[in-house]
Each structure stands twice: as C-alpha cells, then as structure tokens.
Write a structure and sequence with these properties.
Elements: H1 2-35, H2 41-80, H3 89-101, H4 105-123, H5 126-145, H6 155-175, H7 183-194, H8 198-216, H9 219-241, E1 246-252, H10 256-266, E2 272-275, E3 290-297, H11 301-311, E4 316-322
Antiparallel strand pairs: 1-3, 1-4, 2-3
Helix pairs in contact: 1-2, 2-5, 2-6, 3-4, 3-8, 4-5, 4-7, 6-9, 7-8, 8-9, 10-11
Length: about 325
C-alpha cells in the first residue's frame, strides 16, 4: 500500500515537472517566433508576464467600454431622444439632426463622429482612434438593435437622469481608453493651435449647439437640454476622476520629525520627506528645511490640523485637491 502511494506521488511529481517544462518550451518557441531570436528564461518569463498584464488590462477596458455604451444608449433612447432633448458635443449634434430630419440615430452617430475619428489618428495615434471607432460603432449598433423603454416624460427628470446615464456611459468609455463623443478630440487639436484650453473649446462648441437648438427647436427645449448636458458633464467628472476626493498636504516646519511621527503613528498615514532649500522668509531658520508630504481624505483635514497645531502652530501648511490616486497606505489602512 505504501509502495502504491509512493508510485502515485512520484507519478504526480513527474507529471507536474514535464507539464512545466512543456509550457516553458512552448513559451520560448512562441517568443522566438514573434521576435526571431532565442533568449534567456528571464526574458521569456518577463515577456509573458507583461503579455498577461496587458491582456487583463484590455479585458477590463472593454468591459468598461461595453457597460458605458449600454448606459449611454439607455440615456439616449430611454430619456433624451423620445422627448426631443439633445446634449452637447457630437452626440448633441446627432440628436439635433434626428429631431430635424428623422434619420436613424445610429447612422448619425457614425456620420458625425467620422471626422473626429480621422482627426484622432493624427492627434492621439492609430491605436486610440481604432479603439474609439470600435466604441462608437458599438454604440451605434446598440442604438440600432436594442430597444429601451421610455422611462418618463417629465421634463426635469428626463434632463437629470438622461444626462446622468449618458454621462456615466461617456465616463466609463474614457476609463476604458476610448471616447464615444469625438468633440474632445477636436478640442484637444484646437487647443494646441489657438492657445485655448480644452474646456474653453468645448464650451464654445456647445454654445453653438445649444444656440442652434434654441433657434431650430424652442428656447425651453434648449434650456432643458443644457440642464441635461450639465448633469452629463458632472457625471463624467465623477466617473473619470472618482467620487472620493483626496487632499495632498505639504508641511514645512522645524519640528518636522515630531509631526512626521504623529502622522504615521496617530493618524496611520504615510509620509514622504523632501530635502528643501531656504528661500526668502522671516522664520529665522539657519538650516535648510525638511518638507513633509502626505495624502489624506477630506474627512481627516480637521484631525491633521489639530495634530500639527499641537506640535507647531506656526507650521507652513499647503493643501490641494487630488482627484484620484492608487497605491500607498491611505487605501490600505483605516484611520485610527
């Protein structure tokens, strides 16, 4: 019986060994086929590790894009389009054209965005343009084939929730590395040429779109459409930049060591120390200052100020907003 168990264990060990060796040889041959050279096991392992990370990232991106497309299509066909409301950007141009011409939405979404996709090849590169073209094509396909129920005809609800679902869809597509509204590409290109910010360019384009809506439709429709656009724009900001806002805090004090210890031990937050240089000031410090930098949430601002005041009420403190972040202790450790 013991001999049988030993044979089974030995057979399993040999099976695992040959399976791993076969996988290793297959990966090495594939790498050699792709790159035309034989390399070390380290480079082969690194190549396949990076390939796995890229594949996982691509899958996540397309999940975000697909969910975003369905959200945007629901906002368009379930709220805005049945009530003759429009939005800003290329989607707004397509909706306005649907109201005026009765052409199908899917066709106009493609036609309006084609110039922006071609511009994206030059501005953002072929890979981004291809991803955007596929995302817009998917949005047109969903708009053509999927039926969504008319949720409400109450104008205020249509503006707010239609803008919310459309903005969520646009934001999720951006998180996935594509856009389903090509005016941002145009805004990026114009901002380089005329010296304006992207926000200024988009604002100017939308003034023209909503002005045309007020003239061709009604002023009331244009006003409700503007409300839908504002709801969509705010939702895009939340989806892309994150709902939780972090605060970056820079602290300069001769008692930096005590402040650092207090932040790490009492607040359970990480701190980075920079070596600074003296500038013009009246602090009377003879040595170059040490600069502390930490990241906290908005809920911790009062607590941090209190801890600093306990040690050095005259410390120089600068705070600025951080829309989103990754890594670090703040996302792993709860506040004490």
């Amino acid at each position: 019986m013991n001999k049988q168990k030993k044979d089974v264990v030995m057979s399993q060990i040999l099976h695992d060994f040959f399976r791993k060796e076969t996988q290793k040889r297959l990966k090495r041959k594939t790498y050699k086929y792709l790159h035309g050279e034989a390399v070390s096991d380290y480079r082969v392992a690194k190549f396949w590790y990076e390939w796995r990370i890229s594949t996982i990232r691509s899958i996540k991106d397309w999940i975000l894009i697909v969910v975003g497309v369905f959200s945007a299509a629901f906002g368009l066909k379930g709220f805005l389009l049945p009530n003759d409301f429009i939005d800003g950007g290329a989607v707004g141009i397509a909706l306005l054209s649907v109201v005026l011409t009765d052409w199908p939405l899917w066709m106009l979404l493609i036609a309006v965005n084609i110039p922006f996709i071609l511009l994206g090849v030059k501005t953002m590169g072929k890979r981004f343009a291809l991803k955007t073209a596929l995302a817009i094509g998917l949005l047109a396909l969903v708009a053509a084939l999927v039926s969504f129920p008319l949720v409400t005809q109450e104008k205020l609800l249509v503006s707010v929730f239609g803008g919310f679902f459309l903005g969520a869809g646009i934001g999720l597509a951006v998180r996935g590395g594509a856009v389903i509204d090509g005016t941002e590409i145009l805004a990026l290109e114009l901002s380089k040429r005329v010296g304006l910010t992207m926000g200024d360019v988009i604002f100017g384009l939308n003034i023209l779109i909503f002005g045309a809506a007020a003239y061709l439709l009604t002023v009331e429709t244009a006003m409700y459409s503007l409300l839908a656009y504002m709801a969509a724009a705010k939702t895009v900001d939340f989806v892309v930049e994150g709902v939780e806002e972090y605060i970056g805090v820079t602290i300069i004090s001769p008692k930096f060591q005590e402040i650092k210890t207090r932040i790490v031990q009492q607040m359970n937050r990480g701190v980075t120390v920079y070596a600074g240089k003296k500038g013009v000031g009246r602090s009377g410090a003879k040595e170059d200052p040490q600069i502390l930098f930490t990241v906290i949430t908005r809920l911790e601002i009062g607590r941090l100020n209190a801890e600093i005041d306990k040690i050095d009420p005259n410390a120089f403190v600068v705070m600025h907003s951080i829309k989103d972040m990754r890594g670090g202790l703040i996302k792993r450790r709860p506040l004490h």
